[in-house]
């Protein structure tokens, strides 16, 4: 370990990367910040080097457009914490060269990562699907569930952690920044404003000692917080929603079928090459239980006709307009087929 750590040379001088074979950018998740850095890298880094971006949601093609060498630009979305998580989403831009893609995939293997190719779209494979999953999790709070019930139901089902524990760990302010961008770019995508209310109070999660849960000093254990219940109840009153009892089964179905339905769109658009690629993203990057096989495999095991029927039932419920069956899901279900073969 000491020998390998000794090979790492930190520097605050950008010019020190001039002769690197691959440069991986991991600056703040904002397009203007990333484009500015890539313009600088384009002027400094030797020709033939790979310029990689660790963006988790932004358009790799727009980042590449800030350079004069778009064929050498690729996305390398490392999952956090990068020294632990096995998943590496390798994002192929519109102009990414084949040798650049192949070299990046080989680097992933050398780093002992599971590298999965994704096309360019907002959120790529994993985070694009996650947005639908968390959209339902927040709606469930609007309707009557608590953070601990949603997290508990999903953890008992097999997830490594529930969405509210996850966001408290990652930092609620990160999701807030993305939502603020989404409000401008995609007004058709409806969010509960409840997580915004949480963030407006400075409750960013573990790093501030308060988020959807509270945390004792020096502890990462999420504890239920009566203040959060007050925030939820005030928000329900604000939007005129009367809380109702929600079963653990409904929580699991809505969150899992939201994943599979968006996965079907990703497949049809060619963002992912195959359903098993989507499953590998969730098995290695999102704490999905291995014995469930991944969201697409799980939907197959339930039966796509049953998944489709459930989605149509959800269309009649709260924020039902957000449930639109993916055309591929509907076609496969009606033909008695599966995502995986």
What can you tell me about this protein's structure?
The structure is a single chain. The protein is α/β, with parallel strands linked by helices and 341 residues long. It is built from 15 helices and 5 strands. It has 2 domains: 2-118, NAD(P)-binding Rossmann-like Domain (Rossmann fold), CATH 3.40.50; 125-341, N-(1-d-carboxylethyl)-l-norvaline Dehydrogenase, domain 2. A 5-stranded mixed sheet has the order 1-2-3-4-5, sandwiched between helices. The mean pLDDT is 96.
Low-confidence blocks of residues: none
Mean pLDDT: 96
| Total discrete domains | 2
Kindly report the CATH topology of the largest domain: N-(1-d-carboxylethyl)-l-norvaline Dehydrogenase, domain 2
Q: What is the H/E order?
A: HEHEHEEHEHHHHHHHHHHH
The count of β-strands is 5
CATH architecture of the largest domain: Orthogonal Bundle
The amount of helix comes to 40-55%
Radius of gyration: 21 Å
Distance between the termini: 44 Å
Oligomer: single chain
